[in-house]
Design brief:
This protein is of the alpha+beta class. It has 14 helices and 13 strands. Helices cover 39% and strands 20% of the residues.
């Protein structure tokens, strides 16, 4: 076997264009596994399909790929220890040290910077009244969500530490959605807490040791797998499933974001979920089935496609890495033949299982660049693992922030989207926020989808053996 160090040295001696060509040729000769594996070498890799889309869009829409989170920290916080812990998390996860450049051949490439750069601003609000301080925290949170982050420069995160009192702080994180998804929040907080408790080289090691798989490993694998025979064959098979489904129509006015809070009534929903559980359906499957009936009735169709965001961490080692792994899984639902709700539940179970088995395929590649997908409604029942930020002597609480930018993240063409309904089950309630396209829907249209779900579940539990009218 060749000496890896000598091999890397020989590659480094080549001009950049030839070095990249040599890497591609060597990678093409190696079989691509079905799941991501640590990449060989530390050179640049191709970005994912989603990253390419966000990179192109942020050129004309600054801050379109910015997400923001805020935490209230009550207790004797050590700011310097927090700074060291934040820097340690950036050092541990390659995704938070990546930048995108265009190679001499014109192809975008992801580079990983060796050293982390912590961008942290501080503000002392302890001289304000509680009401004035709260107003300034809200302003800072809104500003954070509008922070212009840039994948090309590597400015993909920015922090704000606000001091309200000696034992009261607010930490706000702005992150680029090309490198940070919802699941990453839990990973980030777990590592931040470990780094704060133990230091960067503490006995637990979690704050210092890198995860088994990094996001660039995944990006490199995705590019090679899609170009290989297995990925190409799976892509062809999946495209055939949706060949008869027309692309969603684009709104004449384009895309303009709107948000509306939504909540499901517990009476009919609880009864509907109980009926679904008796048929082996998860709460997501049951609610998705009801939504499919609502959309089929409105569109006068007996088959339709609904998109759902999936975590995309189909390999166990990916669960411990920060990165943007989320993908949209299109689910094709068949309502032909006047099925009962129970029968439709079983169809939905099979359709969801089949769709999730293909979450390795990025939706941008599945339907092609510039082509709207065959769905205009996305539905999610979020189940990210709840991870408390365990800081010694400090009580941690989540602060509400500006609504997320889900449609531009999840939809290859936001102008062809009607709404993204994101629900969370918490404290006995199912609710959340729906993002919609103001040029395609109104708040009343979106709320109508939720009341429609309640009505379908109410009728299904009253007469579970009756055929559905679509």
């Amino acid at each position: 076997m060749a000496d890896p160090a000598g091999f890397e040295g020989a590659l480094a001696a080549l001009p950049e264009a030839k070095r990249e060509l040599a890497r591609l040729m060597l990678a093409a000769r190696q079989p691509v596994p079905a799941h991501p594996a640590p990449r060989s070498g530390a050179g640049p890799v191709p970005p994912t399909a989603l990253q390419c889309r966000l990179w192109r869009r942020e050129r004309t829409h600054p801050a379109v790929a910015t997400g923001s989170h805020a935490l209230r920290l009550t207790g004797p916080l050590d700011p310097q220890r927090l700074v060291a812990a934040l820097t340690g998390v950036l050092r541990r996860h390659e995704a938070l040290r990546t930048r995108l450049t265009v190679s001499t051949s014109g192809q975008p490439r992801l580079h990983v910077d060796e050293e982390p750069v912590l961008r942290l601003t501080r503000a002392d609000l302890s001289g304000f009244t509680p009401q004035a301080a709260a107003e300034r925290v809200a302003v800072q949170s809104t500003e954070s969500a509008s922070t212009v982050l840039d994948l090309e420069s590597g400015r993909t995160s920015a922090f704000r530490l606000l001091r309200l009192a000696p034992d009261e702080h607010v930490l706000i994180l702005a992150s680029h959605l090309a490198v940070f998804d919802g699941w990453s929040s839990g990973v980030f907080l777990t590592d931040l807490a470990a780094g704060y408790r133990e230091g960067p080289t503490g006995p637990g090691g979690s704050a210092a040791d890198p995860p088994e798989l990094q996001f660039p490993d995944y990006a490199d694998w995705q590019h090679r797998w899609l170009a290989g025979p297995d990925g190409s064959a799976e892509l062809a098979r999946r495209r055939a499933v949706f060949a008869a489904d027309p692309p969603a129509p684009r709104a004449p006015g384009g895309f303009e974001r709107g948000h509306v809070p939504v909540r499901l009534a517990r009476g009919p929903v609880d009864a509907g979920l109980e009926l679904g559980a008796a048929e082996g359906a998860t709460p997501f499957m049951t609610l998705l089935t009801a939504l499919a009936v609502v959309l089929a009735r409105r569109q006068g169709r007996t088959s339709l496609v609904i998109g759902t965001p999936a975590a995309g961490r189909f390999a166990g080692p990916l669960e411990g890495a920060v990165g943007q792994f989320t993908t949209v899984v299109p689910i094709r639902l068949d309502l032909a033949g006047g099925p009962t709700f129970r029968e439709l539940l079983h169809r939905t179970r099979a359709a969801v299982a089949d769709a999730l088995a293909h979450q390795r395929l990025p939706v941008d590649v599945l339907f092609g660049e510039g082509t709207p997908p065959p769905y205009n409604v996305l539905f999610a029942l979020h189940n990210y693992p709840a991870v408390p930020l365990d800081l010694p002597g400090i009580e941690v609480g989540q602060l509400p922030g500006p609504p997320a930018r889900h449609l531009e993240l999840y939809s290859p063409d936001p102008a062809a989207a009607l709404a993204c309904i994101g629900l969370v089950e918490r404290d006995g309630e199912i609710g959340g926020t729906a993002e919609y396209n103001r040029h395609a829907a109104t708040p009343e249209d979106v709320r109508g989808l939720l009341t429609g779900i309640e009505d379908v579940l109410d009728r299904a539990t009253a007469a579970p053996a009756s055929p559905l009218t679509t």
